[in-house]
Write a structure and sequence with these properties.
Blueprint lengths: L1 E6 L9 H9 L2 E9 H4 L7 H19 L4 E6 L1 H12 L3 E5 L4 H16 L3 E5 L21 H11 L2 H4 L41 H12 L5 H4 L12 H6 L4 H13 L3 H22 L21 H11 L6 H13 L4 H14 L4 H11 L5 H12 L14 H8 L4 H6 L8 H4 L7 H6 L15 H18 L1
Parallel strand pairs: 1-2, 1-4, 2-3, 4-5
Helix pairs in contact: 4-5, 6-12, 11-12, 12-17, 14-15, 15-17, 16-17
The protein binds flavin-adenine dinucleotide.
The site of flavin-adenine dinucleotide (FAD) has 28 residues, from helix 10, helix 12, helix 15 and helix 17.
């Protein structure tokens, strides 16, 4: 029989679960990606992610063609396109990799029903994470709510079987070309404009391989470098994990092997991949947390609202809070679509626990801007910072934005990259310029309120207000 593989967040040929199973089970395998208007129509006309996807599709199409196949690309509504194409091609079955986001689950269930009406089967596979859903449960059969025991269980269960690559190439003979596969449309053809997507952030398995090779040279130092945004510490692989242009099994295998031979950097990096699995299983077991607080008592918090709160939110979005590390971080996000993990924690804490704004506002802004936006990880990160999430930091732990800056960007090197007007400030003045004497600032070419903003608030006052705001939680917990 023939089959259709529906690609979504798994845009590669190598070690691809659904593709492998389709090739094993079918005489002829067609491949499709739908540029889904249910998602695309809501986006701004210039969106770095759309450009990343187009890149990745071109690369995928070329990889498939080299093996005798091709990618059919449709621009329309996935709910209609997938069943229609499956019928047109006369396939017996549609293969796909599972996506546990609530909206994706609803979409897939609907597609499955529509296919069933035409007598076509649909089958899903695990591909996006190492362990999914209920594969890891506590001794009592419950999902894990705390990361460390989850990580220990993950490490205990892992063995070469789970990390083995699916040998797609061995079965590639069943890949089939089709007259409907007419190449990948340009951005303009689907109504989008080119963006400033940085050369190092292009989509496709080639760019992913290049980043990985470069990272593996320095993975042993990851533990020391990862917290300092001015250094090249992390892997920058997150958009590739998001769109599946690299296999998570491959990454976990590289890290696990090095951890076994004593690399501390690899051990810590593997733990980050485990956090990713952790947040995905949280999403599976607690889909309500994608909209409201994981711990319901935190929904009683009264966040600031009204015009002043909105103006402060805009200042945060635009990198105009007057706190240099926070502002530089937001400019990194706005200018590249990426933000360093340490800085995500700093700016999230600032929005919630300094500005007193609802964490969902920040979550939404990240959703719009991040190239690596991932519902499970983003929601997990925001609820961690808000103290309302699964294994979150306690509510009374409030990052001090000045000491975070002194600790993780001591010389101000990262800050100066994004705020050149502060380039002449010495390290002792750069973390909180308003504490300097006006003459000192003037000598460095800085004039507060003119070429760099005055601080929107004083951290110590905000801290007191936040503890009062969170008191409602203590009384309900
Ligand atoms: P590396 O340090 O090289 O880590 C390797 C991989 O591990 C990452 O690519 C990512 O897939 C995974 N990872 C690392 N840290 C985490 C984590 N805390 N939770 C889950 N997975 C992790 N990550 C996203 O992929 N998408 C998001 O939308 C996202 N939003 C976040 C929002 C907030 C408020 C916070 C605090 C964190 C968020 N993260 C998110 C997690 C983390 O910041 C990014 O995964 C990381 O910065 C990506 O850069 P990297 O690939 O260079 O990371």
């Amino acid at each position: 029989a023939s089959a259709l593989v529906w690609f979504r967040r798994d845009l590669r040929v190598d070690d691809q679960a659904a593709l492998y199973h389709a090739l094993r089970q079918s005489r002829q395998v067609f491949c499709v990606f739908v540029l889904d208007r249910a998602i695309l129509d809501a986006l701004p006309r210039a969106d770095r992610r759309v450009e990343f996807i187009i890149d990745a599709l071109r690369s995928l199409d070329a990889e498939l063609r080299a093996l005798g196949g091709a990618l059919i690309v449709r621009h329309g509504w996935a709910l209609d396109e997938v069943p229609r194409l499956a019928a047109e091609l006369g396939v017996a079955k549609v293969f796909y990799n599972r996506d546990d986001e609530p909206q994706a689950l609803a979409r897939d269930a609907e597609v499955e029903q529509r296919l069933a009406r035409r007598g076509i089967a649909m089958q899903g596979f695990k591909d996006h994470v190492v362990f999914e859903r209920s594969e890891l449960l506590t001794g009592a059969g419950k999902p894990y709510g705390v990361f460390t025991p989850y990580k220990n269980a993950w490490l205990k269960k892992i063995d070469p079987f789970y990390l083995k690559a699916y040998p797609v190439l061995r079965h590639a003979g069943a890949l089939a070309d089709h007259a409907l596969a007419q190449g990948v449309p340009t951005l303009a053809e689907i109504g989008f404009e080119p963006t400033d997507l940085h050369a190092s952030l292009r989509g496709g398995s080639g760019p992913a391989e290049a980043l990985l090779a470069e990272f593996l040279q320095r993975i042993d130092r990851y533990d020391e470098a990862r917290d300092f945004p001015a250094l090249r510490g992390p892997s920058y692989l997150s958009p590739h994990l998001r769109f599946g242009t690299v296999s998570v099994r491959r990454l976990a295998r590289e890290a696990h092997q090095r951890q076994m031979s004593g690399s501390r950097g690899a051990e810590i990096w593997l733990a980050e991949l485990i956090w990713r699995d952790f947040y995905h299983q949280v999403m599976h077991h607690h889909p309500h947390a994608m909209q409201s607080a994981f711990r319901p008592e935190y929904d009683a918090i009264q966040w600031r609202s009204g015009p002043e709160a909105e103006a402060d939110f805009t200042a945060w979005c635009e990198g105009r809070t007057g706190y240099p590390l926070v502002d530089a971080a937001m400019l990194q996000l706005n200018q590249s679509g990426y933000m360093h993990n340490r800085l995500r924690m700093v700016v999230a804490s600032f929005l919630i626990k300094d500005l007193g704004l609802d964490w969902r506002w920040g979550e939404r802004y990240f959703t719009e801007k991040l190239l690596d936006f991932d519902l499970a990880a983003n929601n997990g990160g925001w609820q961690w910072a808000a103290s309302s999430g699964c294994d979150a930091q306690p509510y009374f732990r409030i990052f001090n934005p000045i000491s975070q800056s002194e600790k993780f960007d001591a010389e101000g090197r990262f800050i100066k990259r994004y705020l050149p007007q502060l380039a002449k400030l010495p390290p002792k003045l750069i973390h909180a310029p308003w504490l300097a004497r006006p003459l000192e600032l003037q000598a460095c070419g800085v004039e507060l309120g003119v070429n760099y903003p005055r601080p929107v608030l004083m951290h110590e006052d905000a801290r007191v207000a936040t503890l009062a705001r969170y008191a409602v939680v203590k009384s309900r917990a």
